[in-house]
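haha ok so turns out i had the wrong file open the whole time. this is the CORRECT one, sorry everyone. sequence first:
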Amino acid sequence: MLKVIEDVVLVVPNPKRRMTGFSTGSSPIERLIERLREILRSSRRAVVFTGAGISTESGIPDYRSPGGIWSRFRPIDFDEFMRSEKARREYWRRKFDTHETIMQAKPNPGHLAIAELVRLGRVAAVITQNVDGLHQASGIPRDQVIELHGNTTYAHCLSCGKEYDLEPIRKTFLKDERLPQCAACGGFVKTATISFGQAMPQGEMRRATAEARACDLFLAIGSSLKVYPAAGLPALAKQAGAGLVIINREQTDLDHLADLVVNGEIGPTLEATLNW
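then structure:
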């Protein structure tokens, strides 16, 4: 069982620099980084849970933040997508409005640090609310990434599950707004993401729940921990006896459960922690 470090909350300034920018010695930042190292060294089976905060450091906007797409447009409900051609056309307009930003994004130091922890065998699985595929792009094997909200980098048929590359769909849609249709069964084609009103993927939720219960350390990174049922996983891990670390730029509603809370930039924090 993981040795739990005493409760502590330290605030890391938002350093726009690499880990060499962290001073050594007995500064609050260095003490915080050392605590994170101790926790990781003590862990034998850690699980990482990530939210939008890690991907904003790759230039992908947080949909819920001011200026994000959900502050400009009402989300399209899944039932509305299924029954309305107009809604499906608007869905694809919005998708291709943000498509280039997501497809051009690269894994940042936070993603790469998590990938290194996976490579070292410290992290058994990465559970993510993100749909950008950056964990896989960072080098984490696909079978070790559990995508609770799906993936927006490809499309699939809602009837038969056949997968489709987005580029041909994009070219056709931008030409005359023709809606994609499954070549195999004629079903509706949609990005492989979970929309409002759409059922969460049962297989992924079962895997995530099992990983949360089996781990000895649960690291919640870049998530506001407000979107359920996914946000219930840290508490589930804690109840099962795991240590809980929360790394996020702002406070969360679950900070009171955590053994360690870091309010700061994710990439520099994880980079410095792995400098052991």
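The two ends are 22 Å apart (CA to CA).
again sry for the mixup
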